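On clarity, I found the account of how folds are encoded harder to follow than it need be. Since the whole study asks how a given chain folds, the encoding of that fold should be made plain. For illustration, here is how one protein appears when written out as sequence plus structure tokens:
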Amino acid sequence: METQLFIFLLLFFTIYLIAYFRVFRNWAPKIRPEASSCLHLFLPRYSCCFFSLNRYTW
């Protein structure tokens, strides 16, 4: 259980930091944290949909 929590937090911060420093680096500093947070919310949803669709098409 503790390992799963650690992995979740590690992935959360990794996605957030990549979005903050790479994806939205040209955005205004005032809205960059919100945009990074939104990317973090949308990314797992799309990957879940992708993997669930691939499961039923194979």
About this structure: The mean pLDDT is 77. The chain has two helices and no strands. The two ends are 31 Å apart (CA to CA). The longest helix spans residues 32-57.
